[in-house]
Amino acid sequence: MRTAIVTDSTAYIPKEIRDAYNIYMIPLTVVIEGEIYEEELTLKAEQFYEEVKVKELPTTSQPPIGKFVELFEKLSADYDEVVCVHLSSGISGTYQGAATAGDMVEGIEVYPFDSEISCMVQGFFAIEGAKLVQEGKSAAEIIQILEELKTSSHAYFMVDDLNNLQRGGRLSSAQALIGSLLQVKPLLHFADKVIVPFEKIRTKKKAMKRIVELMAEATNGEPFQAVIIHANRKQEAEAWKKELEAEFPNIEFSISYFGAVIGTHLGEGAMGIGWIRKRTS
Questions:
Q1: Of 102, 135, 150, which marks where a domain is finished?
Q2: Which residues contact 118 (CB under 8 A, 6 or more apart)?
Q3: Confidence tier at 84 by pLDDT (50, 70, 90)
């Protein structure tokens, strides 16, 4: 069986890595003051953070089902099956869109995978899927292995600026004002497929320290891969990575970012860490 791997733009896998592993990507949409962009294709993260400084808060939407149908029909010429790795079904209809489109296309079997998370942790699943293809695994086998890996994955995000949560209707103006005055840094995570508050912490430094504590508890000295994710704070992320690599030799660290879709909701300055157990076989 010839197996393809597909993910969406919120995995934020660099193009050179997607190309190296033959991973196909379908973009989510960002609308800024009536202008429609395809995330990661016509709107890069750097451009997005510049745009939102002077423009209204964007809106985001999942890929149209027709985009999935078009891609699957194209893939059916060279592949028998496809594993689709998507952001959590609790925050987007992208996963369901892939499943629906899969039922509409003849000649290729579609296996959607709900990562129940997003950003580069989602990307880890897509990359692992691509490695498993290289190892000769079928789509059904890949889904089973990814489901097992999912039990070890988690991520915590710190929101630096409450304004985006307030502007997006997820926080009242009064809460945003009080939170800003108190320097509250909400720590968020995925639970039951949705993003929910985990803890409220008073300063950025304490929030970052708490994320590291949670990572240490979860990894417990075992081999893991982790990613530091930032919203337009690359230098901070690089400094944090250097510090953590010295402290956690059992963890392989990388750096990624919150792109336009996720950045719309978290805002500039957000930072977090996500992780997943390293596959041993």
A1: 150
A2: 10, 11, 87, 88, 91, 190, 262
A3: very high
